């Protein structure tokens, strides 16, 4: 097996060198899919960050699907000489023997068809007699990457610019110019996330569409100035933080009314980063220092508010700064902000903050893989470790560590494993049983483009933000390893986003449905932060395959 693996790896790396040399925007024909598919299939026999009692926590207690052979935390049975593992699928059985109830399913994994399966682990004595009832687990056995996938019908940067322009021309953005504060664009009730993404979208458009630069920057300034005015004053506990939640006077909040009601007076601690990053983008385009200074002030607040152990709370009282729950936030976007100020602008004084937070990350997240979801529309109290895992916080980890100028070997290795984790738990490459889902708002059964990535255990819907985030994780892995399989995975996910894009309006839908949005009727389903994530990923992929 080792010789075979080495040979396949050598062939794959050689293919990668050819790919880098000759890849164009439509580079699917440049991949040796026979080799890559074989590698993907073989890789799925190796468990993702397997648990080990007393050493490594089992993160998959609440998992409901696996692409990679899992290891489950079954109990030892007193007097057992061995254990029989049996997976049943449509009346067919796949079995193997082991001396442990916590063995990987690698031995039988490749032979099990995709779909819902039932695993039983039966303890037996030395004579083969069953000891008690079997321990069981039901889950979905998913299929791995198997290219080629449908090709994009336009270039990646072209699609990114088209998406940014589509958002710009929508009433979501144009209302800012008209003086109407978009009160009927209901998602503007999330200022940190949506308003900040609007600023970033306009800055991207200004950089890539000269004829629209003046108008785009006018929008960005209006939104930035509005959000700066709404932010907490310099002497407040959460100095310079803009609100996570906002209810315009005289408007009940529409589709997010329930979220606004439940979160009155609260804020997501990490989301001020969104605004700081947007202000830096605006400063890069217009050079007006007031935006840069405000971003630095936000970063300084984070430094001041950091806990002794290097963490920050996930949600807090917006006015007092007191934590709302004991749960800590995922700090990688805060670290990205500090790293950007340090690397791009030469701002000093964040080294200790970064060091302390990275130490906390290694000890509490990277050691456990507890990538629990931290969404502003989830109440976050009472969620157990691993109960609502998401690709989002995991992909952000990869983006942070591998976005460094010189990540360590240890950082590269853990990020490769995190990429396998989001592939295993959230990415659907081929499964025909999962291409039709009930979409959130109209509750109709609609087809989705494949491959895709769903957002979290608590919301199993294919989302462009998640698809783009996992694609960017694979891009980072490719950049630091040269692995063509990582590049092929990123490309397949990017192509899905382009295929779902409305070719007329340019809008990138939040849900990757195979029927383009009627934009006027479906505007509440377009999340600007998700759209901008896709735009960022498309632009980044263009730079990878067409370096200048």
Task: Describe the protein.
By secondary structure, this protein is α+β, with helices and mostly antiparallel strands. The chain folds into 2 domains: 2-141, Immunoglobulin-like, CATH 2.60.40.10; 156-545, Glycosyltransferase (Alpha/alpha barrel), CATH 1.50.10.20. Helices cover 45% and strands 10% of the residues. The protein contains 18 helices and 12 strands. The strands form 4 sheets. Strands 1-5-4-2-3 form a 5-stranded mixed β-sheet. Helix 5 (171-178) crosses helix 7 (213-230). It is globular, with a radius of gyration of 24 Å. It starts with a helix and ends with a helix.
In terms of topology, how is this protein built?
Layout: H1 2-22, H2 33-43, E1 65-66, E2 82-89, E3 92-98, H3 106-109, E4 115-124, E5 135-141, H4 156-169, H5 171-178, H6 191-208, H7 213-230, H8 257-262, E6 266-268, H9 272-286, H10 289-305, E7 315-317, H11 332-345, H12 351-366, H13 391-401, H14 409-426, E8 427-428, E9 436-438, E10 445-447, E11 452-456, E12 459-462, H15 464-481, H16 484-500, H17 519-522, H18 528-545
Parallel strand pairs: 1-5
Antiparallel strand pairs: 2-3, 2-4, 4-5, 6-7, 8-11, 9-10, 11-12
List keywords for this structure.
single chain, 548 residues, alpha+beta, Immunoglobulin-like, Glycosyltransferase, five-stranded mixed beta sheet, three-stranded antiparallel beta sheet, 18 helices, 10% strand, globular, disordered N terminus
- Spatial gap, N to C terminus: 40 Å
Number of helices: 18
How many structural domains are formed by the residues? 2
Low-pLDDT regions: 1-29, 438-442, 516-524
Described by the principal axes of the CA atoms, the overall outline is globular
Helix content: 40-55%
Strand content: 5-15%
Overall pLDDT score:
89
Structural class: alpha+beta
The count of β-strands is: 12
Strand order of the largest sheet: 1-5-4-2-3
What is Rg? 24 Å
Q: Could you please say which CATH topology of the largest domain applies here?
A: Glycosyltransferase
Mind telling me the CATH class of the largest domain?
Answer: Mainly Alpha
